[in-house]
Design brief:
576 residues; 5-stranded mixed sheet; globular; alpha+beta; 9-stranded mixed sheet; 27% helix
């Protein structure tokens, strides 16, 4: 270590929000270069390369072939698919010296499709799966949490090309199993959840989420089945319609100063017969939606009053369009929209779109705005008094909601996305007219799958899941070194013995981080705990008695081993 390019820090970096960020910086694995951009130092790069090796081994084993495409890409292919506009501000755009539009690639579906179109023309060439391990770029508005949400990151992205849906399903299933093997080898605790396809397009989609309290993704799982889904992908069970022939007519009532759900419920319980809760009210949230290249369109999103509109579910529901809440200027420009008293009739009368939660079925009766200050409808019935323009999955999902598969209820947890697999279908092959000549001599439109895995993010995930209060703890599969050998004895014989042990372990095929610095034993022990090698060997006071100490960084267990059998004892500890 005396020659290793390494500087550990005693204090947490000021901008670190999560344990992985704090520890990777303190341990000298990474350094910040710019917001959301990090440099890999020697120990960090070793972990990175080890994760990369696991990914490559499993991808090669499934029959995928590695290629490498550029990160600097032309505009035209992404214009063809519409994603030049769809990505919006998240895309790094630039011009070359001749004024041609270029971009830094966030993903490579277009480019892989063009590569295959240029090389293959017959059904005999398929199926094929290509992959790369490539740096990606996304101009995150708020990069945070170190490697977990950066502007520059490394992914493994692969793409399958098949003749039909059965072939696509086989490729998808093969990738799913491969990802499970990768994450199992890395020792990650993860779940597979149903997901939305987002800007990628396509149909079937699943995410691999590492279970972690600091995760930005909320997922839910059933208490009584294997159902699991990202909250954006949860489909609300739709109640049966209710007969409304005998329901009383809707009535406009003076409700006074009741611009919030709480004040409206208080009014109802004081002025109407019966007991009322927020679930009896219909909340109308006004937003504006803009399709790629289009204009803003005002839309109401109606949800039961006991729920909020979940921004992530709303964004997923309208993707690739943008969505924002109406601001004061929007309300000023549309005086028919009376804040706190908006209802379906006024929205539609003004010519705006009115979308409802799936629970707002025909026959359900609501207390909701009457589009005048201080006035609300009671008994406004869906399907009789108003008809929505459509249904939208935007309401918050909460613990205790019925599971969409009809088994049990949902409970929520946090996770970090480490993989995402998509059945793209023909979105991109249609855009680039990727056909091959079929067995019958007629053109066949190829179908695709896309499969992403976060390589650089995985280092942060492992740090999040496996650290303790003392520092990092790397699984043997990816640790920078197999053994951290610490000299905690100034005796010349002990120093020479430690050097000999390091040489013997190296000859036995182990990688050794040899702490030969002149620092105190306390400093060395703290660094050994911070750096996180799975096995720590201490040549200390016991050397005079013919022993060394072997510590397991994960369990904290320590055992003495005789010097003359130390090599075998360390080998046994490393190999479990």
């Amino acid at each position: 270590m005396s020659a290793l390019f390494l500087r550990t820090l005693r204090d947490d970096p000021a901008d670190a929000e999560v344990p992985s960020h704090r520890l990777l910086v303190r341990a000298g694995y990474i350094r910040r270069s710019a917001p959301g951009v990090y440099s890999w130092l020697p120990l960090g790069l070793k972990v990175f390369r080890n994760v990369e090796a696991v990914v490559r081994q499993e991808m090669d084993a499934m029959g995928a072939q590695e290629i490498l495409l550029p990160a600097l890409l032309p505009r035209e292919p992404y214009e063809t698919t519409g994603r030049w506009a769809e990505y919006g501000d998240a895309l790094f755009r630039l011009k070359d010296r001749k004024g041609a539009d270029m971009m830094l690639g966030p993903t490579h579906e277009e480019m892989f499709t063009q590569v295959v179109k240029g090389e293959y023309s017959s059904y005999k060439d398929l199926p094929t799966t290509l992959y790369q391990v490539q740096t990606k770029y996304r101009d995150e508005e708020r990069p945070r949490a170190g490697l977990l949400r950066g502007r520059e990151f490394v992914m493994k992205d692969s793409y399958s090309f098949d003749l039909d849906e059965a072939g696509l399903q086989a490729s998808y299933d093969k990738h799913r199993a491969t990802y499970q093997r990768i994450f199992d080898r890395l020792g990650v605790e993860y779940v597979i959840v149903a997901a939305t396809s987002g800007a990628m397009g396509g149909s079937a989609s699943e995410e691999f989420l590492a279970v972690c309290d600091v995760g930005e993704d909320t997922f839910v799982r059933s208490t009584e089945s294997d159902y699991a889904a990202n909250v954006e992908a949860v489909v609300t069970p739709v109640p049966a319609p209710v007969a409304f022939d005998s329901l009383p007519e809707a009535t406009v009532r003076d409700t006074g100063d009741t611009p919030t759900i709480d004040t409206l419920v208080d009014w109802a319980n004081s002025a109407l017969d019966g007991e009322y809760t927020a679930a009896d009210t219909l909340k109308n949230v006004m937003v504006k939606i803009r399709k790629p290249g289009g204009k803003w369109e005002i839309t109401a999103v109606a949800v039961p009053g006991d729920r909020d509109v979940d921004p992530k579910r709303l964004e997923a529901a309208v993707e690739p369009s943008e969505v924002e809440l109406l601001d004061d200027a929007d309300f000023a420009a549309n005086p028919s929209l009376v804040k706190g008293y908006i209802g379906p009739k006024g929205v539609q009368r003004a010519g705006f779109t009115y979308l409802v939660d799936p629970r707002v079925v025909d026959g359900t009766s609501w207390i909701t705005g009457a589009d005048e200050k201080g006035k609300h409808y009671t008994g406004l019935v869906a399907g009789r008094d108003f008809t929505a323009d459509g249904v939208i999955e935007a309401a918050s999902v909460r613990d205790g909601d019925p599971s969409p598969d009809g088994k049990g209820v949902l409970e929520s947890a946090k996770g970090i996305e480490i993989g995402h697999i998509f059945q793209l279908g023909r979105k991109y092959t249609d855009a680039f007219e990727l056909d091959v000549l079929g067995e019958n001599g007629k053109p066949v439109r190829v179908t695709m799958g896309s499969y992403g895995l976060g390589v650089s993010r995985m280092i942060a995930v492992l740090a999040e899941q496996m650290h303790d209060e003392k520092g990092l703890r790397w699984p043997r599969e990816v640790a920078p070194f197999d053994v951290h050998l610490v000299i905690a004895n100034k005796d010349e014989a002990a120093v020479a013995g430690a050097q000999q042990l390091a040489d013997d372990l190296d000859a036995a095929g182990l990688s050794i981080l040899f702490d030969d610095r002149k620092a105190s034993p306390g400093v060395k022990f703290k660094d050994a705990e911070l750096l996180g090698m799975p096995v720590v060997v201490v040549v200390g006071r016991g050397w005079a008695n013919g022993t060394v100490e072997i510590r397991d960084r994960f369990t904290g267990d320590a055992a003495e081993a005789a010097v003359d059998g130390a090599t075998d004892a360390v080998l046994a500890a490393v190999r479990g």
